[in-house]
Fold this protein.
Amino acid sequence: MRSYRDAGEKIKMTESNELKDQTFGKLLQELATLAAVPELASQKDHAQIEVDGIYFTIIEGGQYDRNTFSYFCDFGAVPNSGERAEILQRLLESNLLMAGHGAPTFAVNFETQHVLLVGRAHLSEVNAQRLLNAFAQYAEQARQWRQGYFLEGQRKTQAGSQQQRLRAALQA
């Protein structure tokens, strides 16, 4: 597992003079160098990279959204279990907590039924190191989600409520 510096940084990057001329291709080249991969699996307008075992897709902004890019972090499939509704609700709650300018959001890919963490950034506000750091942080969150689907707190609360109901029933 690779370790990246400053993994707690957000994807929102600070602007600097050296980033003004950033291009999508240049960003991908720098990202490949930092990630120690010969080259990213890329097409004309998008690329894929694996960071700590988690896959990311990076797509260049279209003609109406020039000088931007979107990124997609594959968190994995939504389980078809009795907890599916609770899992999806927890993702929506997470979206609310993360809401803000430049913040990523959760979505479900209708074709694959995988949860994606989706974000958009301006090329002029990004450098490859911070992007890779953010991807490392998101990869860690994806691994955590795959282990418990962000339901740990809910399960503890439900278990506590069940214990309280049991105590009340025994005392009655």
Q: What stands out?
A: Confidence is low (pLDDT under 50) at residues 1-20, 156-160. The chain is about 40% helix and 20% strand.
